[in-house]
Structure formats: C-alpha cells, structure tokens
Amino acid sequence: MLQTNNDEVFFNRVRLHLHKTLTPSRVMVLREVATYTFTDLLTTLQNFEASSCVARELSAETPLSRRGIYSRLLKCWERVLRDEIRLIKPSDCMKDVFDLYVSRYVLNDLTGILSAGVEETTYLSAQAAEALREAAEVDGLLSTLAGSGLNAGFIVDVLEKYRGFRVSELDVRKLVEELNSSFFRRLKGVLSASGASSRGLGCVDSLEGFEGVKYAVRRSIGEGGDFRGALTRLTPSQREALIKHSSDPHTLEFLLVTLPVNSCHSVLRSMPPSTDTFLHYLTVKEWEFQALSYVFYLMYIGYPTDMIRDEVGRWLRLYESLPK
User: Most buried residue, 40, 134, 157, 241, by CB count within 10 Å?
Assistant: First the structure.
C-alpha cells in the first residue's frame, strides 16, 4: 500500500492512544488504588483515554450488568475513533480495517444467540437481537442483518449458502467455524492490502487459533469434557498455562482473553507507526474493555474492596507468569 501523509498522521495518533490504553502489562495500575469507589477508579484512570467514556457512560448510581458496561464502553470508543478517522481522513484501507474488526462484535453476538440463546447482546440492538432469536429460518437471519445497517457483509455471505434452511437444521458448531474462518481470512486480506507486516499477520493467526480453543473450553466447562485435544494450534507454553489452570473456570476465562492479546502485544509493541500499530491498538482495547467492565461490575454488585484488589492482584500474578 502507498501510504499517504494522512496515514502517517493517523498511525502516530494511534500510537498516542496506545500509550493511554490499559494493556495486560499495565494492570498494576488498577491494583494501586487504595479504595475502590467509582470516584477513585475514575481518578486512577484519568491518564487513560478510557476515562472519558467511563465518565460519560457509567455512573455509581446506575448499576449495569458486565455485558452492559462492556457494551457502553465499546460503542463510546467506536464513536470517538470514527470521529477521528473522519477528521484525519486516512486512506480507505484504514477504514476498511476498522469496519471489519468491529464486525467481529456482530459475529460474537450472533454466535451467542445461535449457540446459547443469550438474552443480552454486546453490540446488536435489543430489537435486532430479538429478531434474530425469533427467526425460524435462515432467510429471517439474513433479512435482519441486511436491514440492521451493521457491517456484517462476511456474515451474510456465509449465511447465503444456507438459504432455505430452518435455523433448527443448522449445525451451529460448523457454522460458527465457517463464520470465524471467513472473518479472519478477510481480516488478513484487508491488513495485507493496508501494508501489515508478517508480525501483524502472525498476530491474526494467533487470534484465530484461540477462537476454536475458546469455544471448546467453554463447552467443556459446561459439559464436563476434556478440552486438551483442542489446544494443538497453540504454543507449548500457552497449552501448559491452560492445562495448569484447567480446574479453575474463572482463571481459564481470564487466560482465554489474555493469552491471544498478550501474544499480539508482545510482537507488535515495538513496531514503528504503521498498520501493525492500528491492529495492536484494536486488540489491546478489547482487553481493556474486558478488564474495566469486570472491575466496575464487581463494584456494582457490592464486592468488598479487599476482594476486588485481590482479584486484580491475581490477574497481575497470572500475567507475570505468562511467557513474554
């Protein structure tokens, strides 16, 4: 890709955002708070870009579910970044990368609805989610997604193959695998067209490898099965970490979120401002939303202060034990 001056401005702006993002390696920032109140956390986060969305979207008086907190932070951040893209005007490739990456959240919601019938979605509106849950045929899924105004092109392309099928006739596991494969194939395509390096594309491979692992582990926890056979695509150290904590579902969930992000964070944080920087930013923001939504949720449900600090401290110890 021939980079423009606007691309250089955008990449440098993203680099500044990265310096103000809560990454796995900076989780100790949360651990340093003396007491956990809404005001204390807002003060602690004042040097992070998430603080503006936290202040705008959350309050101590209006408790939300963990998914609700995550959703508000995600959508606020998306609006802010889209405004910057409109202002800076980088090349269309950068907008394509962002549009496609955000469509992952549509996919996550659809997967949750089809596989588990989840009631609360992260990105889809309540109306769209309800229409998808009520759809008896694949044509109903397609019409809902097509009329939602969302970036769901790759999802529609996969579902087109199943026109005429009833939703109950679908092999959901196979469909989820197809959708994830389509997403990551397209993501690598737009990143390649945008000038991503082999390190950036390797990050995508790592993210893709973990998608199947997440599904297998979560299903195993629910059914009491053995997920070790699903770990073959991971590195030996990643497999070891998951197997070591296989008896603790809560720790496993933390690792499933942290390991793929940590893999990308380790290889991309030293890259010069480029498409790789943008990919790095997108991946660590997802981790930041997960961490903040969990801490705020614990506050909302009245978790004791010392237990919240202990939980964050456990994250830090787990992170420090992971291969860098």
Answer: 241
pLDDT in tens, 97-132: 999 999 999 999 999 999 877 888 999 999 999 999
Token pair for 296: 């705020």
Structure tokens at 284: 């660590």
Structure tokens at 117: 């019938």
Share of the chain above pLDDT 90, in %: 54
In single-letter form, the type of residue at position 291 comes to A
d(CA 126, CA 130): 6
